[in-house]
Specification:
237 residues, alpha+beta, four-stranded antiparallel β-sheet
Length: 237
């Protein structure tokens, strides 16, 4: 059967067996979605915020307005999101400004943040910001919008990520040491075995296979250097 090759999008070709020509050219649907998202990211969000703000107090003395917004770097890579079943997303940081309509004063938290950074930057004092990163990250992102102290803030962000991983590792190690070097799963199995649970009961309680319980028990005996379940009471009462 005769056919014609037709191009779809920028590079894809498909065989067309139709005899009647199309009155409308098929658009690149993926490109339409990409352009729509790009418009939403650069203009659409600003339109939504413009519709919501400014927000005035009941008395009219105070009003809350937004200045600008920025997308932070995604907290997890695409691979991490696939492996951990997470959503690949970037935090949206919005700069807010509170106006006192009676005095004309504008209250900005980032003003005080900039003063703190100004004092810390000459001596590269990062740790106070690292220790409180969860609380001040939005204010620091606001300073990035205004292109203030970008190098200092990028260093704080970089150190904070390593610091956070280190804290998690320490907590994990501490937990393992507390349970005599057993992993969390092995510890759960050992504690139930110490209470005279059977392998079947442990499997049902932890929603794992009975064969997994048996293999874990072998590892537990080896790590604790014991030969019977009765000896588990010396470790887990």
């Amino acid at each position: 059967m005769a056919y014609k090759l037709k191009k779809f999008g920028s590079y894809r070709e498909r065989a067309d067996f139709s005899k009647v020509g199309n009155s409308l050219e098929l658009q690149d649907l993926l490109e339409i979605q990409k352009k729509s998202y790009e418009w939403f990211r650069t203009e659409g969000i600003k339109e939504v915020l413009s519709d919501l703000f400014p927000i005035e107090s009941f008395s009219g003395n105070l009003s809350l307005d937004f200045g600008d917004y920025v997308f932070e770097t995604p907290r997890h890579s695409i691979k991490e999101c696939k492996d951990r079943n997470l959503t690949y997303a970037s935090p949206l940081i919005v700069q807010a400004r509170l106006f006192n309509n009676e005095t004309g004063e504008v209250l900005k938290a980032h003003k005080f943040m900039k003063e703190a950074i100004k004092l810390a930057e000459p001596d590269n004092i990062y740790m106070p910001f690292v220790h409180n990163y969860d609380a001040v990250s939005e204010l620091m992102a606001e300073a990035v919008i205004n292109r203030d102290y970008q190098r200092f803030i990028k260093n704080v962000t970089r150190i904070s990520k390593g610091y956070s991983k280190g804290i998690k590792a320490i907590k994990k190690a501490g937990h393992m040491l507390a349970d005599y070097g057993l992993t969390v799963r092995e510890s759960d199995v050992a504690k139930l075995a110490a209470k005279r649970y059977s392998n079947k009961e442990i499997a049902e309680h932890l929603f794992i296979a009975e064969s997994t319980v048996k293999s874990n028990m072998k590892v537990i005996f080896n790590k604790l250097q014991i030969n019977s379940r009765a000896e588990l009471k010396n470790f887990f009462e």
